[in-house]
Write a structure and sequence with these properties.
There is one protein chain. This protein is of the alpha/beta class. It folds into 2 domains: 2-131 and 287-317, Medium-chain alcohol dehydrogenases, catalytic domain (Quinone Oxidoreductase, Chain A, domain 1, Alpha-Beta Complex); 134-263, NAD(P)-binding Rossmann-like Domain (Rossmann fold), CATH 3.40.50. Helices cover 30% and strands 27% of the residues. It has 11 helices and 15 strands. The chain has helices spanning 41-48, 50-57, 125-130, 133-145, 162-173, 187-192, 206-209, 223-232, 248-256, 270-281, 298-305, and strands at residues 2-6, 15-19, 29-39, 71-79, 91-95, 108-112, 116-118, 153-156, 177-182, 197-200, 213-218, 233-241, 260-263, 289-294, 313-317. Strands 3, 4, 5, 6, 7, 14 and 15 form a 7-stranded mixed beta sheet that branches. Strand 9 (177-182), helix 6 (187-192) and strand 10 (197-200) form a beta-alpha-beta unit. Helix 1 packs across helix 2. The longest helix has 13 residues, at 133-145. It is globular and about 55 Å long. The structure holds NADP nicotinamide-adenine-dinucleotide phosphate (NAP). Residues 40-42, 134, 137, 157-158, 160-164, 181-183, 186, 201, 219-220, 242-243, 264-266, 305, 308-311 line the site of NADP nicotinamide-adenine-dinucleotide phosphate. The site of NADP nicotinamide-adenine-dinucleotide phosphate (NAP) has 29 residues, from helix 1, helix 4, helix 5 and strand 9.
Length: 318
């Protein structure tokens, strides 16, 4: 089968289209013929940075062939003997083996059945592939960790990005009051997602405008930004960071304001995928795909995600 191999850590020229063996499946896995893949910032950091690659993919040795990627949608072509939920011909989607090796940049992926959900018929393979790592992150942060509920005031940073655009829609589906941050050219996009308020981070300090959030979802790098998010949450509120842990000044502020703080690391989870599938099916959330790339042009998808300016999601089609 065709797959994109990472020759070594470095630039996009190290992503090489190659012929490799089709994976065999374990009893608990299905073999998926991949139709679309989505790309996340972690794909580019694992490509570039050896520490990230080691920490996330955990390769057994230096000789191991590395295939990046976790987010897939496609059709089941074979099922292991313990798999009850899916059969040949089912269309599925999910984030495969994160943290670990999803090996998604390939025509066929061996995926544990308990990490997948049935793709709703009313959405495309591209829309399904997009609603995996980014949507799971938003779901796990807001629902599983923060227990979001009707009437909560939720500040969502990078509301126009992959995680953020799902987070805005998920929060609205729970009846929350949502404030989203992005730059001015994403104002209409974020409001159209359902946000009640928009803050242009290039012209205003969000912490001057919001001081009483029940929940803040912070996906921006740097302790300075996180400290400002701690200013925006009310006493006893919840802050989830996709980037930083509570250390030093952050730990002090968390204690002083009695904030419930957690650093989030998304995990593969079929039950959460089913919740996302339901929201997609009911039209309560959708995937905004701003760019599509051919499989052979995956390096361009990496370059796009590295801009840090992606609106919604980008996908690669096979
Ligand atoms: N810990 C985890 O499990 C986990 C999971 C998923 C993602 N992440 C991390 O979370 C971050 C976001 O992921 P993503 O997939 O959403 O990335 P993304 O799609 O690349 O995010 C791009 C968006 O970020 C916005 N943005 C950039 N700087 C901003 C700022 N200072 N304030 C507000 N918005 C800003 C941009 O809006 P403008 O163009 O308007 O600036 C753009 O729409 C990444 O660093 C990623 O690695 C962590």
């Amino acid at each position: 089968m065709k797959a994109i191999i990472l020759k070594e850590n470095g630039g996009v020229e190290n992503l090489i289209l190659s012929e490799v063996e089709t994976p065999s499946i374990q009893a608990n896995e299905v073999l998926v013929r991949v139709k679309a893949i989505s790309i996340n910032p972690v794909d580019a950091s694992a490509r570039q940075n050896k520490q990230t690659l080691q920490a996330i993919l955990k390769p057994k040795d230096a000789e191991e062939v590395i295939i990046l990627g976790w987010d897939i949608s496609g059709t089941v072509v074979d099922a292991g003997m313990d798999v009850k939920e899916f059969k040949k011909g089912d269309d599925v989607f999910g984030m495969v083996n994160f943290i670990g090796q999803g090996k998604a940049y390939a025509e066929f992926v061996a995926a544990p059945a308990n990490q997948l959900a049935i793709k709703p018929e009313n959405i495309s393979y591209e829309e399904a592939a997009a609603a995996t790592l980014a949507a799971l992150t938003a779901w796990q942060a807001l629902v599983n960790i923060c227990k979001i509920k009707k009437g909560d005031k939720v500040l969502i940073h990078a509301a126009a990005g992959g995680v953020g655009h799902y987070a805005v829609q998920i929060a609205k589906s729970f009846g929350a009051y949502v404030v989203g941050t992005a730059s001015a050219n994403n104002r209409n996009f974020v409001l159209q997602l359902g946000a009640d308020e928009f803050i242009d981070y290039t012209s205003a300090n969000f912490e001057d405008k919001i001081k009483d959030a029940d929940i803040v979802l912070d996906s921006i790098s740097g302790n300075e930004h996180l400290l400002r998010s701690l200013e925006s949450v009310k006493k006893g509120g919840k802050v989830v960071s996709l980037k930083s842990s509570a250390e030093g000044k952050i730990a002090d502020k968390v204690k002083e304001k009695e904030i419930i703080f957690q650093r989030v690391m998304v995990r593969s989870n079929g039950e959460d995928m089913k919740q996302i599938a339901k929201l997609l099916e009911e039209g309560k959330i959708y995937s905004h795909i701003s760019k599509k790339f051919d499989f052979k042009d995956i390096s361009k998808a990496h370059q796009q995600i590295e801009t840090g300016k992606t609106r919604g999601k980008i996908v690669v089609v096979l």
